[in-house]
């Protein structure tokens, strides 16, 4: 076919961006509620206007296209607005994990070259330490929440910053859909986190794909239990703009508060790590929900006991899987009602805990052996889970070698080991790089080991995941003491780690003994994992 004259033009090609989703919803459903937080309620028209004003204020303060704007904030309206306002200014949003220590935050601010940091007053002290000594420190802006006390370290607060805008209607659309939209840091398996760059195209497609895959209804009521600093809240702020849905914000994960909000706002959808589900189950004490709620569970699959209790309360639980590099969930345990509803409970649970099949926006997925050949789809042969599609990161910021390595061969290598079932469903069996997933957060075993080895009495250390009913997994440390040193107490080691690491990364169990090693001196972590299960 002769394609002369069929080139892209301004009429038939517009770069994909989630900004267009807000633009449409503000025009079509301006009166619909977009945000609820305590007594605050804002419409989509109000959210759109505030986002444009914040974008204009960012420009007024010297933010240019490609600059990085960081937020250290809880799940409050400010961080929701930032998901639209920051890219509206042409800048890149960097939503930081509020559980990080000052050293890690300093690295992120310096590596990402953050120009402005918006900081919730609850986290002001750690941010204050993080920016101390930075050669070109970012401008600090306070987010003031009357619900929590905290120090004010900014030159102004969020509302005062917005008031600096002159035209109040800045709305820059990307000229190229490959333009970066957010920068998310993942712990990986090395000391410093890697900066994962998302583009407008991927953010748009993930939002669309999630809405379709999960059959999320228009004008739905979504409870924000997934942190918006984690894969941009699984891209849910942008998904809600497609559907003119309501996002109900909350600062802390509290079981009783979640149950109260579910009833008050008739919540239909929420998500999080198994620990969130477990927290709700414990708070409910057997009292059923007033209506059915869809719960999307990520990270390690929920324990069978928690899954059963949640379903009895009225939750419809679906397990999903993904990584920071994949904009969050890219596979889901799609439930086949016509085939599985009549199975015995035990068999249904075996189906539920699998990581599932690709969402429509994931073009392909597989499990490869060491020679990059697909393993047998027998549910037994273990290989590395790989993916390809339009919801994969652009790459790692300032780390071309790591980007090339993870994309080698035209597939994204997840670093997770799993099996491939006959029905095409994936199931994660182990983590190739020893990542520990605790409460939905990735913990680098190497980072914990490095901290342990700083102790004067420690010769070697190995850290593995120990299954935990509450957190999914927790770090378990096996420590070998130097010959001439007295063995410290477990409490001494734990206290030492707390000086080096965020509390959630510190080992919950510490065992002293000579580490098992191979002939070449490598520690036999597979033996330690088995031992950790028995503790």
UniProtKB/TrEMBL annotation:
Residues 22-397 form the AMP-dependent synthetase/ligase domain. Keywords: Fatty acid metabolism, Ligase, Lipid metabolism. Gene3D superfamilies: 3.30.300.30, N-terminal domain of ligase-like (3.40.50.12780). PROSITE patterns: AMP_BINDING. InterPro entries: AMP-bd_C (IPR025110), AMP-bd_C_sf (IPR045851), AMP-binding_CS (IPR020845), AMP-dep_synth/lig_dom (IPR000873), ANL_N_sf (IPR042099). It comes from the Bacteria. Residues 448-522 form the AMP-binding enzyme C-terminal domain. The keyword Lipid metabolism applies. Belongs to the ATP-dependent AMP-binding enzyme family. This is AMP-binding protein. It comes from Candidatus Doriopsillibacter californiensis.
